[in-house]
Amino acid sequence: MEHKLARYHELKLRQKQVEEELEQLRAQILQSCPVPGSYDTDFYKLTVSLQERREYDDNRLFNALPDASIWRLLSKADPGKIASLIKLDVIQENTLDGTYERKQVPYIRISKR
Length: 113
Prior knowledge:
Elements: H1 2-32, E1 37-40, E2 44-56, H2 58-64, H3 68-74, H4 79-87, E3 100-112
Antiparallel strand pairs: 1-2, 2-3
């Protein structure tokens, strides 16, 4: 059991290091290619696009919801859960007007040629 715990701990540390390096590389790539579009090298193709995300304000969202029990399902503004509640028709999207800001987030996809 001790060996499994040690291995798990080691892998989690490595995972954190890999995620940090990925984030640094992503930032460097976006600095070099800030405009959405396709960029080609000899061996790779980079596609930069923008994804729209919603950042909800907890107070405005709470006030906009028709029933406080729905807020208990969320406990905080979680865009994934909110999207699910809209799809399930538990809440109407127009009810949420004014509770969030739209944010453009760059997304990169790299494929081998």
